UniProtKB/TrEMBL annotation:
Protein known as: Microcin C transport system permease protein
GO biological process, one term: transmembrane transport
Span of domain ABC transmembrane type-1: 128-347
Classification via InterPro entries: MetI-like, MetI-like_sf
Residues spanning the membrane: 9-26, 132-151, 163-189, 219-242, 277-304, 324-350
UniProt keyword list: Cell inner membrane, Cell membrane, Membrane, Transmembrane, Transmembrane helix, Transport
GO CC field: plasma membrane
Membrane topology: Multi-pass membrane protein
Pfam families assigned: BPD_transp_1
Subcellular localization, as worded in the UniProt entry: Cell inner membrane; Cell membrane
Length: 361
């Protein structure tokens, strides 16, 4: 097992390199870089993308002025532009910037945000609690609902209960998370009906003044609606996965043999079927957590006014805040690769009969 883990860790190096290289190359062709952002603000043009969309006349003016490198830079001295490039590290060739970035990232030095004047790692740590809250509690809630529901659907396959719950699951899967979030706000956050839950934030303004129990209750009071909205699609998928996994095991020969020996249905289900059927479900926990953490957080965070990693990544991409974009990309890429390895180790933990070393051999 040790050799398998070592191989997986070594494979992460070229994988991360490829991820960073592809995204770095793509950003070289994306208009509206950090220098253009600063120029647009200084010129009072608002959003640099407005100029990109309707920049025909501007481009002609720039060409006449002999300054066609940056859109909207007319009237600004070349020395000022050169200083901006130096501050952003854009005065060096692209390959030198990429190699320096990789060297810094090996020591987890992600630099400082262009526009926030705070280190990228501190920025990620600051936003992480919101995303961890949504990812962790949504995943746990999905498992708490989906496993017993999926088992019951498998045991009562084809019954009226199985039919109407399947209908509910299909509807839940079809509803986008952000639309369900808006519905929850309308119903339970003072939109049009009841004002039971707060509309925004992770905690109340007076959270520091509350007792320990009060802080815990306040925290769960605030996260109820965002977590439920985030859970809706993963719950549906996980329920069907659990049901199909159990159905596959129930129809195998060893189950029929166990029943023929006189074992009760409950003992067969939880003594024999459960371990084999839950293998794929339990081992998928790390992957589901990561997908919930980074998959649908942007719209949910925006709707419920939560300042997490989803909004951070979106705002950094729009502002061309490259240290934040690449720093978070590196961290998330590394985290995703580690979670893939953790999923394999979870398989072995659930069922020691699995040996990845023999499989890879």
């Amino acid at each position: 097992m040790g050799a398998y883990i070592l191989r997986r860790l070594l494979l992460m190096i070229p994988t991360l390199f490829g991820i960073m290289l592809i995204n770095f190359v793509l950003t070289q062709f994306v208009p509206g870089g950090p220098v253009e952002q600063i120029i647009a603000r200084l010129e009072g043009q608002g959003d640099v993308f407005q100029n990109i969309a309707g920049g025909g006349d501007i481009a002609l003016e720039q060409e006449a002025a002999g300054n066609d490198r940056y859109l909207g830079a007319r009237g600004l001295p070349p020395e000022f532009i050169a200083e901006l490039e130096r501050q952003f590290g854009l005065d060096k060739p692209a390959h030198e910037r990429f190699l320096k970035m990789l060297g810094d990232y090996l020591t987890f030095d992600f630099g400082e945000s262009y526009f926030r004047k705070i280190s990228v790692i501190d920025l990620v740590i600051e936003k992480l609690p919101v995303s961890i809250t949504l990812g962790l509690w949504s995943t746990l809630l999905a498992y708490l609902i989906s496993i017993p529901l999926g088992i019951r659907k498998a045991v009562r396959d084809g019954s009226r209960f199985d039919t109407w719950t399947s209908g509910v699951i299909i509807v839940a899967y079809a509803i986008p998370g952000f639309l369900f979030a808006v519905l929850l706000i309308v119903l339970f956050a003072g939109g049009s009906y009841w004002r039971i839950f707060p509309l925004r934030g992770l905690v109340s303004d007076n959270w520091e003044e509350l007792t320990l129990i009060g802080k815990v209750l306040d925290y769960f009071w605030h996260i109820t609606l965002p977590v439920v909205a985030t859970t809706i699609s993963s719950f549906a998928t996980l329920t069907l996965l659990t049901k199909n996994s159990f159905l596959d095991e129930i129809n195998k020969q060893y189950v029929l043999t166990a029943k023929a020996k006189g074992l009760t249905e409950r003992r067969v289900l939880y003594g024999h079927v459960f371990r084999n059927a839950m293998l794929i479900v339990i081992a998928g926990f790390p992957g589901l957590f990561i997908s919930v953490l980074f998959g649908s957080s942007l719209l949910i965070e925006t709707i419920f006014s939560l300042d997490g990693l989803g909004r951070l990544g979106y705002e950094a991409a729009v502002a061309r805040d490259y240290p934040v974009v690449f720093g978070t990309l590196y961290v998330f890429g590394l985290l995703g690769l580690l979670v893939g390895l953790l999923s394999d180790l979870t398989y072995v933990l659930v069922d020691p009969r699995i040996d990845f070393e023999k499989r890879s051999g």
